[in-house]
Write a structure and sequence with these properties.
heterodimer, A: mainly alpha, MetI-like fold, 13 helices, flat, B: 308 residues, 70% helix, transmembrane helix (chain A), dipeptide transmembrane transporter activity (chain A), transport (chain A), BPD_transp_1_N (chain A)
């Protein structure tokens, strides 16, 4: 297990560098550079060249990459093309709402999906099973934005139970119940696709386990079915699900972009769309880079947890 | 050995093989008909196939089915459904039904075009990695990990904004970024298949490496690739719709199901003109759902564990 973990970490290191190279190349591919964006209209071509030289923009590309990487390590993500603020400050301002939304969606999805998946597997081919299977497929297939618009139409416009968007009512900053009321619809939208996938995973994983000999032993020694399923079977059925989190994190991040846009949620997703509108590539790539590192880390952690939960795993 | 000799020693007659078994061997079901049979048993998959065929029909024959041109301004703007315009007209006065019918062309071409590109890339990279192994495998798989680390939608948004939003660019970007999952699947299959005796026989016979990979190994990886591609078409359709909804996909006046929904970002359209956003949303859901059901049916039908 220890050996597996070490090898797993060693493999993540070149991937991390690959991620930074890819991000850097895209920023360079994008039109515009920090100098062109900030010059005053009266600057001469010579002034611009001096400034570019000073910033190292005329260096060969691999030198620029090393520079960029060193700055990154110091927490310097560069400056936004549109607000001229440090990119890091902009991200720090926005990351809280996004984490709140993604966390709420993830918890909601798992709390709903795991029991439904178990029930669907223990009652295989019942009407319940067909019903949940069909519904989980609808959950996977419905576009985030359509579900979001539908919820706003029903719950915000027709019945006026929840607000249409934003994170707080103006003038009512910080009220917990107020934030919760704003959070509930976007969290449901973001959770739907993940829950749909999760139900499928839990169901098939549970079905595989339920046929195993050790459960027949548990039943034959007179254990109640409830404990057979929820104690003996569930433990092993949930192990493969650890790896699903590696799939869910990128889905959450992508989904957050669309969801935040519909509900005017002031997070990184909305910042992404705004940055695209203003062609603010440094900010865009910083968000992408952070997202990629988050995915990389969550995959790494998922694999580690998996090797702890299932000691049979070996690196191949 | 000893068993056989005792049997021979006893001079018992060998049990006669019933002729009908030999005949049955010749008639053994082909793999394809077996899969078709199992697919047909999956009711939702068949339903999905029917809906998908209908949508494809709509896309191919759009000019004959649509009541008017999707870009022609035909009447009042934002008119509610009437006998002249079955689904009403949009903000500019174009017939919505016609726009929806033409929109299916965008969705299907993105779905099929993008998936065709990335299945090709993924299959070649996965086969090369799995067959040659060693450092080539190591390199390709690490590049795959890098591509898998970026949240799909985010990178697509950035690349499309750099290249400029258009139908071709969306197909290209999804196609160039979507291959990692296919590469992993193909690599896994190739790793197990290349150890088989018939592949060794091919090597011993001196067949060229491309011939061994493409003619002898890859046909046996087809099932998982096909299942992945089916689900891939569904997610490419959602991606295009999301991009177009955000205004970064197919640009008006070209109709796409996603960009028709863009108008519903305004609360007054959302509240007062539901015919502008409910039908395109339902169509996206229907198309994606039908393809996902087909994918599920294919997966069940091709799963070797359930072949009896």
């Amino acid at each position: 297990m220890f050996q597996y973990m070490v090898r797993r970490i060693l493999i993540a290191i070149p991937v991390l560098f690959g991620v930074t190279i890819f991000s850097f190349l895209i920023v360079n591919l994008a039109p515009g550079n920090p100098v062109d964006m900030q010059v005053n209209p009266y600057a001469t071509e010579a002034d611009i060249q001096t400034k570019k030289e000073a910033l190292g923009l005329n260096d060969p590309i691999h030198i620029q990459y090393v520079h960029w990487l060193v700055n990154l390590a110091k927490g310097d993500f560069g400056y936004s093309f549109s607000t001229y603020e440090p990119v890091l400050t902009m991200i720090v301002d926005r990351i809280g709402p996004t984490l709140l939304l993604m966390g709420a969606a993830l918890v909601l999805a798992y709390v709903i999906a795991i029991p439904i998946g178990i029930l669907s597997a223990t009652k295989q081919y019942s009407w319940m099973d067909y019903f949940t299977t069909s519904f989980s497929f609808i959950g996977i297939s419905i576009p985030n934005f359509f579900l979001g618009l539908g919820l706003i139409y029903i719950f915000a416009i027709t019945f006026q139970i929840f607000p249409t968007g934003g994170m707080n009512t103006l003038g009512n900053e910080g009220g917990l119940m107020d934030t919760l009321a704003h959070l509930i619809m976007p969290a449901i939208v973001l959770a739907t696709g993940i829950a749909g996938n999760m139900v499928r995973y839990v169901r098939s994983s549970m079905l595989e386990i339920l046929g195993q000999d050790y459960l027949r032993t548990a039943r034959s020694k007179g254990l109640k079915e409830f404990f057979v399923v929820n104690k003996h079977a569930l433990k092993n059925a949930l192990i493969p699900i650890i790896t699903v989190i590696g799939v869910d994190i990128p889905m959450l991040i992508g989904g957050a972009v669309v969801t935040e846009q519909i509900f005017q949620w002031p997070g990184l997703g909305q910042l992404t769309i705004q940055s695209i509108g203003s062609r603010d590539y440094p900010t865009l790539m910083a968000i992408n880079l952070m997202a990629a590192i988050a995915v990389l880390l969550s995959n790494l952690i998922a694999d580690m947890l998996y090797s702890v939960a299932d000691p049979r795993i070996k690196y191949n | 050995m000893s068993m056989a000799s005792t049997k021979l020693g006893n001079k018992k007659p060998l049990p006669e093989i019933p002729l009908n078994i030999i005949e049955d061997l010749g008639k053994e079901e082909s793999y394809l008909s077996l899969i078709t049979k199992r697919f047909i048993k999956h009711k939702l998959a068949v339903l999905g196939l029917i809906v998908f065929v209908l949508i494809a029909f709509m896309a191919i024959f759009a000019p004959w089915i649509a009541p008017s041109s999707p870009t022609r301004i035909t009447g009042d703007f934002a008119a509610s459904p009437s006998s002249a315009h079955l689904l009403g007209t949009d903000q500019v006065g174009r017939d919505l039904l016609s726009r929806l019918i033409y929109g299916s062309r965008v969705s299907l071409s993105v779905g099929i075009g993008a998936v065709a590109i990335y299945v090709t890339i993924g299959t070649i990279l996965g086969a090369v990695a799995g067959y040659f192994g060693k450092w080539i495998d190591m390199l390709i798989m690490r590049v795959t990990d890098v591509f898998m680390s970026f949240p799909y939608l985010m990178v697509i948004l950035v690349l499309v904004s750099i290249m400029g939003p258009s139908l071709t660019n969306i197909i290209l970007v999804i196609g160039l970024l979507g291959w990692p999952a296919v590469a992993r699947i193909v690599r896994g299959s190739v790793l197990s298949i290349k150890e088989m005796d018939y592949v060794m026989a091919g090597v011993a016979l001196g067949y060229s490496t491309p011939k061994i990979i493409f003619r002898h190994i890859l046909p046996n990886c087809l099932a998982p690739i096909l299942v992945n591609a089916t689900f891939g078409i569904a997610s490419a359709i959602i991606l295009e719709a999301s991009l177009s909804f955000l205004g970064l996909g197919v640009q008006p006046p070209t109709a796409s199901w996603g960009n028709i929904l863009t108008e519903a970002q305004s609360l007054s359209v959302l509240a007062n003109q539901p015919w502008l956003w409910v039908p395109p949303g339902m169509l996206i859901l229907l198309a994606v759902l039908s393809i996902n059901f087909m994918g599920d049916g294919l997966r069940d039908a091709m799963d070797p564990r359930s072949i009896k």
